[in-house]
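#struct-queue
[09:14] JT: dropping the first one here, sequence first, then the structure tokens:
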Amino acid sequence: MPIESVLFVVTRGDSIGGAQIHVRDMSRALQKRGLRVALAAGTTGALQMELEQSGIPHFLIPGLVRSVNPLSDLLAVRSLKKVIREFHPDLVTCHTAKAGLVGRLAAFWSGVPAVFTAHGWQFAEGIPLWQKLIVLAAERVLSRMTRRIITVSSYDRNLALRLGLGSSRKIVLVHNGMPWRERPSAPDSSGGPVRIVMVARFQEQKDHACLFAALELLDSLPWVLELIGDGPDLSRWKNWVARRGWSERVFFDGQRLDVPELLEHCSIFVLSSRWEGFPRSILEAMRASLPVVVSDVGGSREAVLDGKTGFLVPAGDPKALAAKLETLILNSELRRSLGSAGRLRYEEEFTFEAMLTRTIAAW
């Protein structure tokens, strides 16, 4: 039976992170193709408002929160079942771990097929052992209620297959893709300090401590750092920067909706992480013709060609990160050549249209 209506489920609707951007862009694209589309989320905010501007309805799901709370989770499942009865989708597609739990339970008990997109497993390398065990146990049950599991990296697909979460037919690889944007006319700055940028939430997954330790080793070089994102650790690092005396060279932009424009005024993209799925921010930087320096975790090496479009560095290694940043800070021609190669790789492998086509085929 052809799919004519899709309900997207995501935990948070008040922020714009990787999963939210994926849901936003997919929703708009499917709507343009004539499908009925709706969003269900545990909070309202930036994502909900952007989709409402496109005429895509939003359903608030009380109890759908990131933290584990059996009572809240059951309330969320009950609320989502009501939404499914009201919207009557042909498919429920779930994004982020908690939405994957609530969404698949509600869909299964409503008799509607569900697809789960894993934007990075919560039992991957680098995640605390207790968390791995809990999530893996839950996923072994939930995978049986799922029509397809879409992973955004080969790393995640191979991990899921190795742990027995489904067959090679059920677990499908679809790399992330970014909407088309023309190649920037001036991808690198001329004169003044080199502008380094990192787009990431201030939370446990992202290793801002490693980045700052690396930059301390490069204190005498001409750089400034732009940090885009919010999160629970933001205040801590603002205070650290003030104490370090870097307030004139480290800038905190918070959550922004104009990231593509901001990237086009930067010279180097960095992503320091403890674990990842397949970071959209890397693709966004490549689209902007930026050389990238990223932690070699999860599916990052599936996007970055080490030494050709940027550099991969061991996670949690400030000296290795500093060495690659220093190389790029001091060599503008290398920045341009790696950035141009990254842009070409985006055009050939990671456009949104390619991702959309593969996702629909996987459903």
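[09:21] JT: and here's the second one, same format:
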Amino acid sequence: MGKKAAAKKAVPKAPVVGDEPVRKVKKDSLFSKSSRNFRIGGDIQPQRNLTRFTKWPEYIRLQRQKRILLQRIKVPSSLAQFENSADKNQVSQVLRLLKKYQPETKAAKKERLASIAGGEKASGKAPAVIKFGINHVYDLVENKKAKLVIIAHDVDPIELVACLPALCKKKEVPYMIVKGKSRLGQLVHKKTATCLALTEVRKEDVSDLNSVAEAAKAVFNDVAHRKVGGGIRGVKSMHIQRRREMALERELAKKTGLIVA
């Protein structure tokens, strides 16, 4: 028996639109689409934001971990009060007053001492300037010589100034918590400063000092800071808690017969 002839493949017919068949147009290779290949040896990878994959220095990682921990765990009220700093208007008013009483720089002090050595008479009373240094400020508050105390909110370790607000309340010295120990340090020509104190001002600035002191007493001295800080859940933890609550609500609804299982 002879072999059967192989069946011919059916050639697809061209689609017909109206009476005439539609012919396929051959695309020019100059304008043809060429998909990129990003595998090894292929095209150059596009630029991506690799911030999440950056290995930060250890001190930055510790700062961020500490900030998250303080948000999660419960913080006692004596430490949580440092998160409630003065508002922008109060801070600007205080800084405007403190800038008038900045201590002299090293160059100014050298020039003054040189002028005294040259024969000029020095004034008997020392000028009124900002007092700084944690031990010095504590002594001024204990002796009730300080008229106004400014405390930084980000002192590390915070235990250095943790009892200073309570001491100011006991001695009835107005105090204020402001953001930025570096901002306080600039006023006394240092990198940072934990706290500052004003003991006296000139006659023309007495009214400004009284208004700032009254505002500080109303916001900080006369308010009982008993609010516990922290306890803020993360996003994932909040979603998990919400799903548990929804599951409990469904179970309760089934028990009461509102939903037929």
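[09:30] RK: nice, looked through the second one.
[09:31] RK: DSSP finds nine helices and six strands in the chain.
[09:31] JT: good to know. The two ends are 72 Å apart (CA to CA).
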